[in-house]
Amino acid sequence: MDTQAAVLYELEPVVAQNLDRHLKTAREWFPHDYVPWSRGRDFAFLGGEDWQPEDSPLDPVAKTALTVNLLTEDNLPSYHREIATRFSRDGAWGTWVGQWTAEEGRHSIALRDYLVVTRGVDPVALERLRMEHTVAGYDAGERSALSVLAYVSFQELATRVSHRNTGRASGCPLADQLLARIAADENLHMVFYRNLMAAALDIAPDDAMVAIRDEVINFAMPGQGMTDFTKNALTIAKAGIYDLRIHHDDVLVPVLRFWNIFDRNDFGAVGEQAREELIGFLGLLDERARFYEEKRKLATVSG
Fold it and tell me: Where does the chain bind Fe cation 1 (predicted)?
């Protein structure tokens, strides 16, 4: 049994414990409760009117952020495949994969229903983007199980922050309420993965530290492959929904501190080198975030 397989085997009881905790903590909710169905009306296919830009109550930033968030959630089939392949479909691991997938599935259902019913975005363009993005799928590459565990610990928190800030920036109380509910799910998912990675650090400190370093340095949101992602990410960053400062301060650093990365004394030479490289990268990221903050301030003043 190789190191990765051995760690997964040793983590099985921790998975079971955290699965029990999750099931006791998670609150059942229903996507249809968060959609203002009374505002809906037929499209031309059924004798109504097709979408027009003036139908949308959302500003351009909110439309961009909500579309990116929804398309990211749409790729759930690929995400399921990746974690089921890395973790297992048996035992506690398999039960968690199924539970996580079922909970995540509510997010795209609720977001799409909200956007279509309120005519927040062009539903034809949205469906074409969904088809394109889902056909392309998501590929985690050659990541090991530990690397995937490290990645989802950060990614779930990043998604939670993105959803929460999108809701607040939407200008719509209903969207804010819906995205807060989705963000609560994402937070529980983050806690699950974060706790497992903490246990993995105790079981195999060096291997886990290397995985964490690699995922922090190479981190990218799962929606990166979608059309116009770079342009849309810039719009989202400029609006303060998700930018480098948020990524550093509200995602990376809190999780790393939870794992006691900066003060652990159980690393060997390999783990210690990975930690030093991680700390160096965080310093560079902080500098870049500060640069863009100053740039934004100057633009605001000059504007």
Answer: 73, 104, 107, 186
Measured CA to CA in angstroms, residue 195 lies from 16, 75, 104, 137 at distances of 12, 25, 19, 28
Quote the pTM value.
0.94
12 assigned ligand-binding residue: no
pLDDT of residue 9: 83
Q: Is 32 annotated as a binding residue?
A: no
- One-character DSSP codes across 1-29: --HHHHHHHHHHHHHHHHHHHHHHH----
* Residue 272 marked ligand-binding: no
**How many structural domains comprise the chain?**
1
* CATH code where residue 288 lies: 1.10.620.20
Give pLDDT, residue 122: 97
Tell me how far the alpha carbon of residue 55 is from its chain's centroid. 29
Locus of tokens 């937070």? 187
**73 annotated to a ligand binding site:** yes
Asked if residue 22 belongs to a known ligand binding site, the reply is: no
Tell me if 293 is assigned to a ligand binding site: no
Q: Which residue range(s) make up the domain with 218?
A: 3-302
Cβ proximity of 254 and 190 under 8 Å? no
